[in-house]
Amino acid sequence: MSNERKTQQLGMSFNKASGRLKKMYLLHLLQRLGEDKCYRCGQAIETVDDLSLDHKEPWVGVSVDLFWDLNNIAYSHLACNSRAGSEGKPWSNARRQAQVERARKQYVSGRSGLANQSGIV
Ligand SMILES: [Zn+2]
């Protein structure tokens, strides 16, 4: 059976369906093993859409070995994983600091603008 026919029958791309089925089975196994707890928050992962593979040690920009290291893998809620990912990146913190600094400058220049209009310099 061609993938096109499978896709037609499934009503979604065969690759997408296969990925979803693997994730469903993974969650099924985790639940059977009692390992369905989020690495980040400790709460149960209840749906496939919430399940994500998480790297305990960030690998991006560090090491490909950390990506493939099974001992570095945990399970977490997708939201918990995403939150940790955005907080853990140094560039993200730098960008946040830049935003804070920009907002501070706008605030200060806005205030001094008002002060000038009111005649207070
Ligand atoms: Zn969580």
What does this structure look like?
- This protein is mostly helical and 121 residues long.
- It has 2 domains: 3-88, DNA Binding (I), subunit A (Orthogonal Bundle), CATH 1.10.30; 89-121.
- The protein contains 5 helices and 2 strands; from the N terminus they run H-H-E-H-E-H-H.
- It has helices at residues 3-10, 14-33, 64-68, 78-88, 90-117; strands spanning 51-55, 73-77.
- A two-stranded antiparallel ribbon has the order 1-2.
- It is extended, with a radius of gyration of 24 Å.
- The N and C termini lie far apart (79 Å).
Judged by helices, strands and strand pairing, the structural class is mainly alpha
Strand content: 5-15%
Count the beta strands.
Answer: 2
CATH class of the largest domain: Mainly Alpha
Lateral strand order in the biggest sheet: 1-2
Coarse morphology: extended
Number of domains: 2
- Helix content percent band: 55-70%
Largest sheet: 2 strands, antiparallel
Uncertain stretches = 113-120
> Order of SSEs, N→C?
HHEHEHH
Let me know the average pLDDT: 83
Q: What integer value in Å does the Rg equal?
A: 24 Å
Q: Please report the number of helical segments.
A: 5
**CATH architectural name of the largest domain:** Orthogonal Bundle
- Give the CA-CA distance, first to last residue: 79 Å
CATH topology of the largest domain: DNA Binding (I), subunit A
* Heteromolecules bound: zinc ion
